[in-house]
Amino acid sequence: IFVTDTSRGGVFVFDPVAGKLTVWEYAEWYKPFIAPIGVAVTDTGELLVSDAELAAIFILDQEGKPVGKISDQRLKRPTGIARDPDTGSIYVADTKSHDIKVFTPDGILINVIGAPGEGPGTFNSPVHISFAGNQLYVVDTLNARVQVFSADGTYLSSIGERGLYLGNLTHPKGVVADIDGNVYVTESFYDYLLIYDRDGRFLLPIGGTGSGVGEFFLPAGIWMDQRERLYVADMFNGRVMVLDYLGG
């Protein structure tokens, strides 16, 4: 389990089977991470890590050794990162440029999705992203919504809206979808994990502010494994909360 820690400036690597924890600190030889944000694993087991301050995607081998990077002068502040498992394409949220940049597995920029704005298909500081069911989910943070795109960047739908009621969004951070199409969004301002169905209808809140089991304090990134277990980065509590999806 790979967890980026921006304060520590590294990637925490948890091996639950061996009961072992290591920390990978270097983006390149003799160059440490400054602000690692997004992580994704390739088919060959290499780790892709976006660093917002270093403005690049760094490639680490299975032992955490730097083996390459993806960079482009048009990449300003990379944060969220996701891979299309079918094509290997790498999607990167460029928060400062307000768009999503798409790279080949070899690191060639092939597409830019979106532009600054408030309308459908445009962004205001996108952060975390995920790829599920051949669709790209983008947390459009300062527009207080999640936008859904096809793999080629065609706008499909929007989930959530700005508001003060439970189920509305104020400062969303992370997003992931399960096998049934339910969409999970971390609402960092009010410390909730909000769940919507595939049509964007609000289903259920989990959490609220606190440090107890099932509570959050500034939740951010989120990920779901192949067993449908949900991992939520509970930032100010300094932990990762794990929840098990039982299905409908």
Task: From the structure above, extract its key features.
248 residues, mainly beta, 4-stranded antiparallel beta sheet, 51% strand, globular
Describe the overall structure:
The chain is mainly beta and 248 residues long. 0% of the residues lie in helices and 51% in strands. The mean pLDDT is 95.
Topology, element by element:
Layout: E1 2-5, E2 10-15, E3 20-24, E4 26-28, E5 31-32, E6 36-41, E7 47-51, E8 56-60, E9 66-70, E10 78-83, E11 90-94, E12 99-103, E13 109-113, E14 126-132, E15 135-140, E16 145-150, E17 155-159, E18 172-177, E19 183-187, E20 192-196, E21 202-207, E22 219-224, E23 229-234, E24 239-244
Antiparallel strand pairs: 1-2, 2-3, 4-5, 6-7, 7-8, 8-9, 10-11, 11-12, 12-13, 14-15, 15-16, 16-17, 18-19, 19-20, 20-21, 22-23, 23-24
Low-confidence stretches: none
Number of strands: 24
Biggest sheet, open or closed, and with what strands and sense? Answer: 4 strands, antiparallel
What is the overall shape?
globular
Overall pLDDT metric: 95
* Spatial gap, N to C terminus: 26 Å
Task: Write a brief structural summary.
The chain is mainly beta.
